[in-house]
Specification:
- 36% of the residues lie in helices and 14% in strands.
- The chain is built from 13 helices and 14 strands.
- Helix 5 packs parallel to helix 7 and helix 7 packs parallel to helix 9.
- The longest helix has 18 residues.
Length: 405
Amino acid sequence: MKNKFLSALILSTVIFTSKASAVNIDAQTNDLNKIWTIKFNQEIKYDDLINDNIVIADNDGNKLSTKIVLKEGDTLTLLPPEEGYKDGQVYKLNISENVKSKKLKGIKSPKDFTFKVDTKTKAFNNGSYKYKDLVEKTLEDGCNYISNKGINTDWEVMALVKNDKAISQDYLKNIKSRIDNNQVTQPTDYQRTAMVLGALNENVFDFEGINFIENIYNNEGIIDQGPNAVIFALTALDTKNYSIPENSHFTRESLVDTLLEMKTDDGGWDFAAVKADPDMTGMAITALSNYKDDAKVKNSIDNAIKLLSNMQNENGTMSSYKIENSESISQTIIGLCANGIDPTSKEFTKGGKNLIDALLTFKTSENGFSHIHNGRANEKATEQALLALESYRELKNGRNHIYKF
């Protein structure tokens, strides 16, 4: 076996098979701009022929124009075509036996990998992975906990929607009441409300007479709320890839540049912009994950991921201001998954415990999550933990963006 040159697609999931139109589907994604990663067991001979030997074609056999980037000596990333993949289409990725290692060994045999792009799917969950049963049970328990106590927050709604749970029309009355009582006034209010309305498939351009998307890209007060508002401006705009008109106060590019300028000296993010905090850093790399084609963005994300690994405690947890807490773990998990990084990887395993292990230690007897160990369940900790576990589940099923609805 040591003499063989092998490859494996890193799908953030174990490859699974289902039937669709008599085609064996190895994986499914709802990301039109999905980036695939191929890892080999030896360093690759990376030359001009690589694009001829690793090809993505549509169901009619037409070769797509994709870019292949050497990530590390033994790892390649396959960027999507400029126009993105087409919704509902099936594609085949072929790795030719002419792919060589630096020692000029060919791969064991040609590899074919078939994937389907379907933006409508939320719970395509046929993949097998180590924590699947535990994650599924924890998510179901958490959703029941929220439903039994009553839904109180927009983030709870988003977590329930991601689990295909029905949301009562009464919650829309809750949102309308907040608007009527002038409780939607800050930039983050508009951003969060746009996200939850999008999750509920409501008209974000005219809800109660408010264009929530315009109140994001034309809101001059975003900077006044620090990195938090910049982060969720980007996140909200990307939930459904909302367009921004020319001559708007903010563009995606200006928001990205502003967020990068807000980095702390150690390369992360914090509300006070002094020293990186895992919560804000995790949220920032979530927002930036859609912009990694820009070298300066990718570099910032890579550095932040290394920083988060170094910040992890020896028992696998994360701390904010020296306090171990579940929210710091949750936001780290969400940020990693948005960037295709498995939170159970060796880089995020300390003392034999990874981030998923650590987060689950905060689950309470009420089936919610607590802020600190041995505390009682609370809304903020629970909603963030569910979104983190959903991010992990989505990663394991070929999707990276928890806030895309």
